Amino acid sequence: MNSPATPPPASSTLFFTPPKPPLHLKCNYQPTNKTKTKIIHNFTNKIKTQKIQTLTDFNHLFMNMVSANELDLAYKFYSNLPHYNLSANNLTLSILINCYCKRNEPFEALKVLQHMIDNTFTNPNVKTFTQVINSFCRKGRLSDAYKVFDKMLELKCDPTINTYNCLLKGLCYVGRVEEAYELLVRLKTGDTDGLRPDVYSFTAVMDGFCKVGRTDEALELLDEAVEMGLEPSIVSYNTVFNGYFKEGRPLEGFGLLERMKERGCAPDCVSYSTLLHGLLQWGEVRAAVKVCNEMLELGFEVDERMMNTLLRGLCRRSRKEKELLKDAYQLFDEMSKRGCGVDPCGLELMIEAFCNGNEVDKAFVNLCEMVKLGLVPRVFTLSIVVRGLCVEGKIEEAMSVLVLVCRGRSEMFERVTFDVLINEMNRRGMVTHASCVYCVALKNGVIPLRKPR
């Protein structure tokens, strides 16, 4: 057994080598640049103004930096430990391990952990071991995670359910779902020093099942958790929603939605958004309208891209199912009220829908707005608006479309569009206008069947 020794100073070359600045720090908290600058400024001021006389003072500030995810600043601060004539203790090294784990550098954290085991009076606590295990699991390094776990047991440090949850998530992350399920069974039967699984244990394995197309088994685990007296979290249910979506069974999400409500777990925006996304991906437009309306009634924000997807789906489907035109109009109005941008494809489909629903005036207004925005409508869109206006006898508006859109680009119109225009002008006795339109068509290589008369 190694005799305890004083931890080496931060400048020791044993493992405390200055790291290269990471390209990206994977932190849960992502402050804005302004906030980040302010945090760094505050910590810098504290270092300058506060007299760090004891290791307690140092550890307190070091811990605050790591908690605020100012990891580069924290490491630099730690590297200056000898400047204060102080030596690291267990707490200092535990904070350093946390810093390395947050930086997604488990091997560096492991070096510090091993140093603590070899050279300090007391072994690392369960929280420190768990942090290192979790860091390895997040990188998919399960063999290394289990080595740390075995060392933990060897040192008589009892794991907590959180430790096992890290292993469960790690196993599922690398696709070893069966092993994760077996570990969960061991937890359920009390074969792990009496520890019992919590809702996070079940959710981790449920997520693993859903990712490999076994959502029904995930749902069974959800029911088992309830039978054990656990209350599944919103994340547990959202995991199943995602599973249904990936398996092409989004409609089954409605049953899950009702089950959540019955159990007193109110669906959140993520629940509805996942369900809506799945319905849209699998072409369940009618069901998607229902979910979207419910979200808006509950005050949830619907993603602009999903609203555009739904609008396009409604417009396309309404070509055969005319009753969906009303839903398309309502959604379009709702998007306008909320200031949501409609993409060019959606706008053209909406113009077509207005024409199909005999709302030609609205189609004309939106076509003009589209052109003002610098967008170029398709030939089909232009033609259907012109034909619709002519059918309603609004020849002036139809001519204005020709003038507004073409400006030397009359080739954008189909022959049938010119025929409709000329025919309507002939009917009204506007022979001169009909002749002008006929000449414009010929000039652009289009030969109308109708002639001025």
TrEMBL record:
GO terms for cellular component: cytoplasm. Keywords: Repeat. GO terms for molecular function: mRNA binding. GO terms for biological process: mRNA processing. It comes from the Eukaryota. PPR repeats lie at residues 89-123, 125-159, 160-194, 198-232, 233-267, 268-302, 303-342, 343-377. InterPro entries: PPR_P_subfamily (IPR050872), PPR_rpt (IPR002885), TPR-like_helical_dom_sf (IPR011990). Belongs to the PPR family. P subfamily. This is Putative tetratricopeptide-like helical domain-containing protein. It comes from Helianthus annuus (Common sunflower).
